[in-house]
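Dear Dr. V.,

Thank you for agreeing to look over these. As mentioned in my earlier message, I'm a first-year student in the group and I'm still getting used to reading structure tokens, so any feedback on how I've presented them would be very welcome. I ran two proteins. I've put each sequence directly above its structure. The first is here:
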Amino acid sequence: MIRKFRYVFLLLLLFGVSSRAEKVTIDQLYPIKGELFKLTLKIDGGEVEVSRGNRARECFLYVEYNSERIETDVRFHENTDELLVKLDIKDLGFWKKENKDRSWTAKVKIELPTDPDIDLRTEIKAGETKLDLGDLHIQNFILKNWAGEVEVNFDRPNLTKMNIFDVSVKVGEMRLRNLGNANFEEGDINGGIGEMAVDFSGSAFKRSMARIDLDVGETTIVLPRQAGAKLKVSKFSFLSSVEYPNWFEKRGKYYYSENYENADQSIFLMISSGIGELNIRVN
């Protein structure tokens, strides 16, 4: 009986070691020498967090994944300060298993350096994505998400003028917070099917324009009261409903806020609302 117990215990021990061997982690610091840091994420599925770090010229990367189910390709080019993080899930039907078996997805955590300008481009097929990008030097920001939850927050002003701001989520929930701090003059926001909340609060802009498009679902847009706003809204006939506060007056094809002529800050939005609800609020 004792010998049998030892045999079972040995099998459990070996199985435990084997299971742990499937789990791989990457924990690395990358030194940035130049004035522009380029980060590209291509991730099939997982939990992705990107935030401001506490290092001036180093990028911190942490990845946790199952090596039997996910292939990784992490490359850093020292001469050009370019970091590529690529995670390929071997079974394309992983999204069906996600809620039952978390080993089909990965965890990615990145802390961005505070000094250089940053070119940030992400392509994520499914999962949860959270980006806290305030108090950085984001020069270009492109986010493409096929399905899942996306939250982008500029809690503090972006410290350089942003050339490209392009966010697209095909299916899922999108929350964009404090875009008035993103410091872009022109942006594109596209949602396919789902719920979208876009908040333009913030102070790091004088004039800003954005195109907002949601095909099917509910869209909520929050505008800061101190900024003058001009809106042009296109909707999909009777299948779309639009709710405006009394703060706006319609003149021809456009809606103007009461303070549009006198405000120091101004926002021009071109909104395309498909099937669903569009709610515009002033904060």
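The second protein is here, in the same arrangement:
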Amino acid sequence: MKLYKMILLAAFALALASCSTVSKSSFAPDTTQLNIAMDDLVYLGEVEVSVDFDKYLGIFKRIEKINGVEYDGKKHQSASVSLNAFVGGVAINPVVCRALPKVYETYPETDYIIVVGQTVQREIMFLGSENVVKARVKAYKFKK
């Protein structure tokens, strides 16, 4: 009888272990990939965006102008850029995201953007700096 209980207990433990393994595993792929060729896109145009800002003590930023328009701080617009998909080999300044809505205002049908160039002008001052970041952005849409 004792042997029978041990075999039953081992079978029960094995059944529980196998159920937990199946329920915790995922059959979803680790990564997904979308291959886009330039033949799949229609070129819309190029836009230059710019942000003028001051930086104090290396951590505090105060934006002066976005795309040549005085920034008042009441209206906050930004567009996000996936750093691995939309940047054409350019390490963009995060402040440029504040100026990217101009691309979507200029070309409302934009589906895909690529930052192709960026310039940074910095004037060093005591405990701070005045910065101007300009970026060239190409806009594309998908062919229908």
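From my reading of the second output: The CA atoms of residues 8 and 14 lie 10 Å apart. The chain has two helices and five strands. Does that match how you would interpret it?

Kind regards,
E.
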